[in-house]
Each structure stands twice: as structure tokens, then as C-alpha cells.
Amino acid sequence: MLASDLDTPVGRLRAVSDGEALVRVTWIPHAGTVPPEGDAVSRETVRQLAAYFAGELTVFDLPLRFQGGSAFERDVWQAMRAIPYGETWTYGDLAERIGGVARAVGGACGRNPIPVVVPCHRVVGASGKLVGFSGGDGVESKRQLLDLERGQASLF
Length: 156
Hints:
The protein is 34% helix and 16% strand. It is α+β, with helices and mostly antiparallel strands. It has 2 domains: 2-53, no CATH class; 71-150, Winged helix-like DNA-binding domain superfamily/Winged helix DNA-binding domain (Arc Repressor Mutant, subunit A, Orthogonal Bundle), CATH 1.10.10.10. Strand 1 (2-8) and strand 2 form a beta hairpin.
């Protein structure tokens, strides 16, 4: 596995590649972190993430490989990619789309191995409430990502 790091307004992100596709994006601590050797895929991911955080990119164009997870989880992760930039769907909307239940969709969202690129932050509770986010500072990071996409606040 090869990786590249990027400091963002929602924390330091590491893009991990298997050499052919992006397999993981994770939040990592800043202190004492030495970026591992990157490859073309992880470097391109970092380039696209930087453009996203600068408000210059609304759709990621990267090869993805979902490793692990059940078939249902992979279906959820794939379905989240259809949520347009700046919009939100509820867990129920996503469940209806793939043939599941909202609670199971929520669990799959929480196990999304490629957050931000696969926009689990765009999935909200039934009332539109921001609930659950496994990355960064949790729901606050989710709020920041949605604010960025809606042009409501500058993260810089």
C-alpha cells in the first residue's frame, strides 16, 4: 500500500492506494507524522482533495476499490457516489434506493473506507439532522464539509 497526505480544514487526511486504485482515506494525527511514499493514485487523490477543499472540484474522478465489507455495505458505498455535490439524502432515501433499511445504511456509512471521496457526509437523519460521522471531529467535520459544498462558509 502506498499513501500521500494532505492537511485540510477538517484535519490531516491520508489517501491510501493499492497501486491501481484508491482503497482508503483516513484521518491521521499531525504530530510526528511522516508521510509514506506515495504513488500516482494517492498523489492524484491528494490533488483532487485539495481542489475539492479549494471549492474548485465537485466530482472526484478516481479509480476506487472497496476492500472488505459485506455486499450490502459495498452497495451502500457505491450508491453514496450518486449523491450530488451540495445536496443531502437521508439514510431512508439511500435505503429505499438500494433495498435496505435506514439503520443498516447508517452502519454501512459509518464503515465507509473512503470518506469525502465517497460522500457519506451527504447522508443525514430523517429530519435533515446531522447525525453520525466517523471521521475527523465527527458531526462537526460533517457540518464543515456540507457548509463548504453549499458555499455557506469558508474553511480556510
